[in-house]
């Protein structure tokens, strides 16, 4: 799978090697997606499934796989089912059903049964996977020329054309692209979200270190989640396969600096020095090329509920809409849900218009998408922040009771059920719809 995508990526780079004269040409597209992370690629796949070609713009020279791994709950797997991608990943990654939470200060260990959401019906359970594998699985579904690398967004505008509003996108290299739809999937610091007028994400007061640990001879752990909590700190690891584990540390503060080797040293000697040897050994085996440190930001939920998430035929999805802390493990899942819901509304509009993208109707389809999605990510952002607040709380007795006596004992194992949602399916396209989908109106 990786080799094939590398070949495709090289071909795509060659196709994107425009001459200066070609770069200054004006392009016309039906849909432009800014950003090729989980939300951007998943949205492009969803649109392809409903017969709509999207051009995905990515500012880097290749597909970026920053972020070592992520956990996908049943709601995310239902979205991947709808996108037709889940079958590529489930044979590679085993589900986790058991977890252990160690109170570092007290030495107590709680066993937690991770429960799959009721009536999920997906059979995939909860799996932790390489982020790169997910991105490649999505990218492989797209025509190679639909991803345009080295394309940095500079200015967004619009103009009237034939009585309809057309988005005009200017890239830093001088390229101008006109599009009937613009979807911003450009992350926490989204240019498209800023253009819509959404408030900037705020710092949660927490930071996170994440990476992969590699044991060439095998790590010997069962497919179980191990978590460790202390005052103001939360850490853990989970196997990805027999030789690799995903590990993390979340803590209150923002004072970690330096290169990956220095960050690893700070984790071992400053933040997790009292943690069990099993966790410290995992951190010592870190693949430094995968190690990242980041401030954890989120968009305030009322900014999602009352904010302007769309303007005509422009909208946002993924972290551009709802950046959240990782405490419920729903950042990736929510992005996949966005893709399916947005694909469904655009697909229904295309079907109703005989396979054509009609800019005026696109504005209604996007507005319907926003109405359907607005409350769901607001709930997840709120739940994620509160879950982190409880787990990283202070040393007062009532905070410890909330964390150990309520959250870990009663809620942690039920998180899958609390956040579960079936985002639905994509509309079935007839062969006639597919034949007409590339026509211009």
TrEMBL record:
Gene Ontology MF terms in the entry: FAD binding; monooxygenase activity
Xref: InterPro entries: FAD-bd, FAD/NAD-bd_sf, MOase
SUPFAM superfamilies, sorted: FAD/NAD(P)-binding domain (SSF51905)
PANTHER family: FAD/NAD(P)-BINDING OXIDOREDUCTASE FAMILY PROTEIN (PTHR45934), OS04G0423100 PROTEIN (PTHR45934:SF1)
Keywords: Monooxygenase, Oxidoreductase
Protein name: FAD-binding domain-containing protein
Pfam families given in the database record: FAD_binding_3
Domain FAD-binding: 30-348
Organism for this UniProt entry: Populus trichocarpa
Similarity section: Belongs to the 3-hydroxybenzoate 6-hydroxylase family.
């Amino acid at each position: 799978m990786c080799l094939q995508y590398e070949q495709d990526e090289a071909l795509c780079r060659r196709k994107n090697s425009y001459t200066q004269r070609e770069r200054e040409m004006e392009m016309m597209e039906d849909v432009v997606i800014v950003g090729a992370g989980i939300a951007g690629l998943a949205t492009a796949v969803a649109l392809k499934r409903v017969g709509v070609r999207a051009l995905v713009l990515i500012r880097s020279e290749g597909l970026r796989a920053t972020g070592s791994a992520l956990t996908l709950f049943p709601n995310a797997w239902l979205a991947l089912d709808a996108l037709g991608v889940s079958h590529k990943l489930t044979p590679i990654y085993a589900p986790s059903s058991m977890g252990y939470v160690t109170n570092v200060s007290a030495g107590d260990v709680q066993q937690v049964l991770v429960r799959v959401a009721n009536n999920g019906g997906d059979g995939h359970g909860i799996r932790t996977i390489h982020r790169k594998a997910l991105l490649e699985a999505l990218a492989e579904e797209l025509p190679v020329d639909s991803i345009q690398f080295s394309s940095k967004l500079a200015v967004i505008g619009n103009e009237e054309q034939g009585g309809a509003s057309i988005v005009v996108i200017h890239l830093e290299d001088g390229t101008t692209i006109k599009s009937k739809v613009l979807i911003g999937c450009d992350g926490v610091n989204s240019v498209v979200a800023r253009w819509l007028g959404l408030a900037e994400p705020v710092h949660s007061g927490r930071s996170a270190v994440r990476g992969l640990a590699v044991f060439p001879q095998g790590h010997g752990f069962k497919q179980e989640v191990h978590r460790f909590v202390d005052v103001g700190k939360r850490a853990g690891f989970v196997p990805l396969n027999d030789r690799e584990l995903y590990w993390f540390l979340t803590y209150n503060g923002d004072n970690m600096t330096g290169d990956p080797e220095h960050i690893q040293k700070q984790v071992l000697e400053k933040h997790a020095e009292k943690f069990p040897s099993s966790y410290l050994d995992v951190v010592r085996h870190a693949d430094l090329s995968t190690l990242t440190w980041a401030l954890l930001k989120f968009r305030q939920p009322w900014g999602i509920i009352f904010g302007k998430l769309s303007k005509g035929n422009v909208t946002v999805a993924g972290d551009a809409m709802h950046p959240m802390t990782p405490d419920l493990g729903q950042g990736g899942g929510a992005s996949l849900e966005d893709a399916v819901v947005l694909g469904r509304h655009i697909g229904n509009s295309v079907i109703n218009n005989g396979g054509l993208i009609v800019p005026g109707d696109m504005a209604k389809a996007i507005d319907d998408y926003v109405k359907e999605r607005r409350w769901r990510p607001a709930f997840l952002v709120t739940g994620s922040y509160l879950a982190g607040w409880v787990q990283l709380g202070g040393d007062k007795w009532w905070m410890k009771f909330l964390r150990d006596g309520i959250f870990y004992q009663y809620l942690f194992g039920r998180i899958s059920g609390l956040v579960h949602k079936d985002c639905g399916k994509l509309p079935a396209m007839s062969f006639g719809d597919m034949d007409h989908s590339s026509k211009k109106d």
